Amino acid sequence: MNRRVVPVASVCLFAAALLRCALGADDALQNDAREALRRAVGFYAGKVATHGGYVYQYSADLAKSEGEGKTDGDTVWVQPPGTPAIGMALVEAYKLTGEKSCLEAAKAAAESLLQGQLRSGCWNDRVEFDPERRAKFNYRVDPPRKKKPGFNWSSFDDDKTQSALRFLMRLDQVLSQSDSRLNEAVRLALDAVCKAQHANGGWPQAFEEPAPSTDHPELRASDPAEWSRKYPGGDYWVFYTLNDNAMADTIATMFLAAEVYGDERYRQAATCGGEFLLLARMPEPQPAWAQQYDFEMHPCWARKFEPPAITSRESEGAIEALLRVYEETGDRKFLEPIPRALEYLQQSLLPDKQFARFYELKTNKPLYFTRDYELTYDDSDMPTHYGFKVDNHLAKLTARYTKLAKLDQAGLSELRAARRADKERPKPGELREVIAGLDVRGAWVEEGRLRYHGSQDDTTRVIRSATFIKNLAMLSRYIGG
Q: Alpha helices of 115-159 — where are they, by DSSP H?
């Protein structure tokens, strides 16, 4: 008797097709999305994570990794898209799907961050676990060292401390504050953020200790009588900083802290941050913002390619932050400087509708640097590591201002509620592409290079944390929708 042998794979495909018919297309895609989520989280938490934490990207075989520099398995990254950003994605995925693997991975990421909380209260760009490297840092969980206590600068730059806090607060909320170590670490960090805020509402780029009590809270921003066109050096990170959205990120984080814990101190800190932005707006004819201010509220040098100047990107960030403060408080004084600032920025656009990053004080001439870091008006020899020209977002900011300015208190309340609601559910076609992109391990691998491994590095396929975060969010929103 002839017998036809049916391959096992064909049987599985046939069974899957029957299941889809029985469940319906949406239910079947739900199942596929959930299975993809489990595989992706299993791979990232089980194979990619080291010490519970993550860095920016990895070679496809996981042999090499990097954050803002080469890393090994004993370094995890704080600065997004590192450990806090992945942790937040895992927490949100758990809230939407109930998948316990997401919660367990988020807890592991949180523990990694607790191991990197500095004695000053917050975080810097990385956490070191190698004993020799770790000894160079003054981590809170380690025994104090009287001799050479180690690096202890908590940083607001590039969303380091803020992203860590947002993730840990959301996890603490999901756990109903039942983890006493986690809750204690978050409260200590929030207290450090409040103490690092100056009397005028400004925060430095980084801090070791609470802000001094010798501030001049009444000072408004003004042009210095003169400023050096040569980089003077110095500890610029102690000054009031808007660079890389530091103020806006801190304000948003403190509003979230007020929401999670119901503590008015955090809301007051966020609102005072808005007050600082009102003080920091420069006078006419340049009614916008600088990147950094000294204690006399004059724009000042930061790094050797960041001169005293009006800065377009930071001005847009200040406007966005003021809109957020108005949305939360309903106090129209936070809207008052925006129309004129938008008008000034519109007038400052380059012919190609980009901004120069820097505009000279008083003259408003675009400022650039040569590759030898000489300040110039000429854009023909700029270094490539920094955005000396940036895109503009004026249309979006103008539309947001126009919308908010029309709302009364009831409308603002509705807007806040809508902002906290889940994002739009992804389209099935987009989701299927994400699911199909997983390899047999549960990894999303894509074409790419490792930036910090040198020009001779032969890596052409990478695994990116930013891609994992984006795709995990898409899967969980579909499942939770």
A: 131-134
